[in-house]
Amino acid sequence: MSLLIRNGRVIDPSQNIDKVCDIYIDKGKIDKISKKIKTPSGKNVKEIDAKNMIVCPGFVDVHVHLREPGYEYKETIKTGCMSAAAGGFTSIVCMPNTNPINDNASVTEYILLKARTEGIVNVFPIGAITREEKGEALADIGEMYEAGCVGISDDGVPVTNSNLMRRAMEYVKPFGIPLIIHAEDKYLSSDGVMNEGVVSTKLGLKGIPGASEEVMIARDIILSEITGAHIHICHVSTAGSVRLIRDAKKRGVKITAEAAPHHFTLTDEAVVDYNTNAKMNPPLRTQKDVKAIIKALKDDTIDAIATDHAPHSQDEKNVEFDLAPFGIVGLETALPLSLKLVEGGILSVSDMIKKLTIKPSEIVNIGRGTLKPGAIADVTIFDPEKEHEVCPEKFLSKGTNTPFSGWKLKGVVHKTIVSGKVVYSKN
Amino acid sequence: MAFNRKNILSLNELTQGEIETILDTAESMKEVSSRDVKKVPALKGITVVNLFLEPSTRTRSSFEIAEKRLSADVLNFSSSQSSIVKGESLVDTAKNLEAMGATIIVIRHSMSGAPFVLAREINSSVINAGDGSHEHPSQALIDLFTIRQIKGGIKGLNVLIVGDILNSRVARSDIFGFLKLGANVRIVGPGSIVPKYFEDLGVQIFYSLEESLVDVDVVIMLRVQAERKSLEFFPSLREYSKFYGLNKDKLKIAKKDVTVMHPGPINRGVELSSEIANDPKSVILDQVSNGIAIRMAMLYLVSTGDKH
Ligand SMILES: [Zn+2]
Questions:
Q1: Mean pLDDT, consecutive 10-residue segments, chain B of 308 residues?
Q2: 3-class SS at A225?
Q3: Nearest CA in chain A to B200
Q4: Which of A52, A236, B35, B87 has its CA 20 to 30 A from that of A108?
Q5: Does the beta carbon of A202 lie under 8 angstroms from any beta carbon of chain B?
Q6: How far is the CA of A262 from the centre of ligand 1 (A)?
Q7: For A68-79, what is each residue's pLDDT tens digit?
Q8: Computed over its alpha carbons, how large is the radius of gyration of chain B?
Q9: In this predicted model, what pLDDT tens digit does every residue of A215-229 receive, in sequence order?
């Protein structure tokens, strides 16, 4: 079957396209983008009316926790993919901190098999840097690369041993995949549970200083300089981190960075009343940090928007703040929260789309995030003006752990198309 | 002044008026305690549960006496003895207690914010009897009550808190309480346990005990922890005591009628020299009756407060 998407505002930053026109999709590939495409005769063509909608490459999220294998009660590859599709994401990159950890090719193959049979969007796994993410010995990086891993990361924990991190960079560089860095100095973050500042002081909660992130980013920039490895900094949360990354980019270091919607939307004030749905790592920071991240998105110091989608069960979250696990879901709120940057005049809608499509695709080099003729037809159609209320109970993710419950936001995904097939449709 | 709260979770969220209402109510409760028959039927038929998930004999017995003087039915649960608590989440425990008819739950917990989890999940009233390093409202109310008695008021007093501010729940409640009633609050201690963020709460920070004592009306001494983990914060108790231990000579820097208070069991010779600890002028041991009066007032007010 072929698809003909009519009359949408087609925005594809990879080709500098922003115009109202049609897109013809045939055999799972983008065939043509132009005005008033004639319906091809003798073919089974499904037409989609995208009037007043934006049609763009399917979103790419380079930071998702799918929880399978091992934590299927939190999320499965199936539900995670459904959640992604509902959020307009056609490609998701999943972190290795499952059980078992994705530190060898058999786990990678399992994830890819599950994704092929049960997942409705593209899944690209990240392998661990170190065996069991213990920070002691290198994982089977080469074999995981061969099996399909698009990057390596010990996300959730840092590689504390600087020498091992250096070796990992040297080892991974020839494979051409990035080191994806969860920057945290565990000695500084200690047993902290939220941002260290006035709010943590009032609440009597142990603080995680911004310095714990910045110290590690500084270290890894220096290590990248001596190894030449591409490092990608996950979930940038502080003004200091932004400064370090901006400076490194200026000096030509091979560094990219992502920010999560919660980090450019909320501050640590959201934790007041011990709301465990505002507990994540890195934590929500201060207004000054939020401003710095927004500025960094604008000046391209931060390349991509990534959700750090981290589902947990309600029972796990409905406990004392210290006991609750870090993390919130993000796939189904990313678009409307990113659109707030457009509404606020910070990003053009095209720049926002760039940070959700071609930019993240380039970071992990997966060749998605574009509507170039011949490209695999991953397409997202959304209504940027339609308002809705965030209802976690209606999420397709198993996780309802979001601090945005009840928020009224603009931006609704209308259809998500993967390889020319509609995998999600707003009813 | 009306008191329209179902819970007392922190002094931070109480208004000046609400704090004064508690103190005034405690005055009448103190009168009850001076009678021959120390009992009023205010909480008759009401079940109060003391849920002490962190050991504390002093605070628990004080609440228990207060509850009994108000004729409440009292149930005690502690982490060690109760089967209801073992392996069960705090929320489940609370729901069970509510199902058993607990109208008021007095909770002590080792983690900050635990009383808020309870208050969110159940309809019973919740009183925070100390949570992690967050707050210890009843202790601060006792301090306020005692100082108000001694000095005739709180407004304008210079109050100094000495010691482990970072980890102390008493410090936080005292800071909020004294500030709300118009005192000037100073804190002093080693830089590592006197975080700069307190300045944003309206507190003046000192690192020299001598400098901080100038013109002080009230000194509140916090107990310092002698555990190994605290060695991250200062080198030794000996060195701590040298710089931050209070003795007669240093105390001379403060106002003549200075009052010294110590909310918990003290390390004699560390925070306080024995000569001060034994001085009848320092209000260290004699907070027991005020403690009962304050806790009676808290229990009474939440039981009459707005039930939404
Ligand atoms: Zn991470």
A1: 89 97 95 85 94 89 96 87 67 91 95 96 96 96 95 97 93 98 97 94 97 97 75 86 93 94 78 78 70 96 74
A2: helix
A3: A198
A4: A236
A5: yes
A6: 13
A7: 999 999 999 999
A8: 19
A9: 999 999 999 999 999
Instruction: Please report how the helices A210-227 and A162-172 are oriented relative to each other, as an axis angle in degrees rounded to 10.
Output: 50
Q: Do domains B16-136+288-304 and B137-284 have the same CATH topology?
A: yes
Nearest to A203 among B113, B117, B198 (CB): B113
Q: Does A371 touch chain B (CB under 8 A)?
A: no
Query: Catalytic residue at A154?
Result: no
**Over the stretch A3-29, which tens digit does the pLDDT of each residue have?**
999 999 999 999 999 999 999 999 999
Select the residue of A198, A203, A315 nearest B134 (Cβ to Cβ). A203
**A208 CA distance to ligand 1 centroid (A)?**
14
Can you give the pLDDT at residue B266?
74
Determine the Cα–Cα distance for residues B287 and A415; give it in Å rounded to an integer: 68
Q: Where are the domains of chain B?
A: 16-136+288-304, 137-284
Q: Which two tokens stand for residue B44?
A: 């008759």
CA B161 distance to own-chain centroid: 13
Q: Which residues is B77 bridged to in the sheet?
A: B51
Alpha carbons A67 and A155: distance in angstroms, whole number: 13
User: Per residue in A329-385, pLDDT tens?
Assistant: 999 999 999 999 999 999 999 999 999 999 999 999 999 999 999 999 999 999 999
Q: Identify each DSSP E strand in B19-86 by its residue range.
A: 47-52, 73-78
Query: Which residues of chain A lie closer than 8 angstroms to B113, CB-CB?
Result: 203-205, 274, 320-322
User: pLDDT tens digits for A392-405?
Assistant: 999 999 999 999 99
* CATH 3.40.50.1370 correct for B137-284: yes
- Domain B16-136+288-304 matching CATH 3.40.50.410: the answer reads no
User: Taking a C-beta distance cutoff of 8 angstroms, is the pair A214, A241 a contact?
Assistant: yes
Domain A57-364 architecture: Alpha-Beta Barrel (3.20)
Name the 3-class secondary structure at B153: coil
Query: pLDDT tens for residues A154-182?
Result: 999 999 999 999 999 999 999 999 999 99
CA–CA separation, B242 and B236 (whole Å): 10
| Identity of residue B204 | Q
Q: Which of A197, A202, A273 sits opposite B116 (nearest CB)?
A: A273
Residue A253 pLDDT > 50: yes
- Catalytic residue (choose from A308, A315, A351, A378): A308
Residue A391 scores a pLDDT above 50: yes
Residues 6+ positions from B123 with CB-CB distance below 8 Å: B98, B307
Distance A182 CA to ligand 1 centre (A): 5
Adjacency order of strands within the sheet including B259-261:
B204-206, B184-188, B158-162, B218-221, B259-261
Beta strands A194-195 and A179-181 are: unpaired
Structural domain spans, chain A: 2-55+376-425, 57-364
